[in-house]
Amino acid sequence: MVAAVVWFVSQTVREAWRELARRELALSLAPALGAGAMIVLAQAPMAWFWRRTLVALGEPAPLGGAIKAFYLSQIGKYVPGKASVVLIRTERLLDAVRRDDHDAFEAACGRTVAAAVFYETLTHIAVGSLIAAALTVATVEGDPNTRLGLMALSLALAVACLTPTLPPVFSRLLKKVAKAPSSEVARERRRLTYGLSALGAVCAAVSWGLIGVVVWLSAVSVGAAGWGDFSRWPLWVLAAALPTVAGFVSLLPAGLVVREALSLVILAPALGEADALAVTIAVRLVWVVTELCVCGSLLASGAIGAARRVRSPSRKWP
Fold first, then answer.
1. Rounded to 5 degrees, what are φ and ψ at 251?
2. 103: which residues sit within 8 A by CB, 6+ positions away?
3. Smallest Cα–Cα separation from 200: which of 88, 291, 125?
4. Alpha-carbon distance 9 to 59, whole Å?
């Protein structure tokens, strides 16, 4: 799967780079590196919330293993469907737990990890939709019909994604999809509280705010914005949130085409079509390269750790 993703992503990177070259725009290294670092930082709140959801569901996953599994699973976005993210996180968590608890963890891990993944993801997407709806009126310039359409889209996506995250609704969906025993559903319903939902909303809001900084730094990197244009932060957040949410709902790998199309609609009235296109390509390029680098680094560190354990079989797991 990693090889297939690398091949697919390399095609995207080459096409994006050629498009930037055609426009005679150079990608400045400093803001591009800053955008990459900000991507890693923006994912941290949701990684922590996902692990917090696992704990709430009765799966005491180790913090380090859960965070590593979260970041590694981001490569699964580039595979059609959403199952790859669940599979990667489950496998990574199984690898992270202590050997003594491995069998017990494996017996109940799959369904719990899947439930936590969908709960965390839908919370992030729902909050992004609400933020997009609130920002559309204040930030989108140009045709009023376009503004109205974007707001309607944001609200529809918010309702569609927010409803399943309500604890009673999520518990019922879990019972139907996973065919879990009624006793387990009742236990999970008590654990999935509105307090946990509120915590997830705060983490998601922080994450979207940081992703808006990613768009701004990407705009600076291609010369479509200056360092002083951070005053347009609401526009950058909107250009990050709504395209990402729509791309997720489309079920296309990493929201390809959908994210780019909406990003152009949002940015073009404020920046012009040329700069909007440059920013859209730069965001995709920086995002893909960053996630590949993070996943590659984690896989390499895991391989080194596994080799050390083979050489020292008596060593206790951390």
1. 65, 5
2. none
3. 125
4. 34
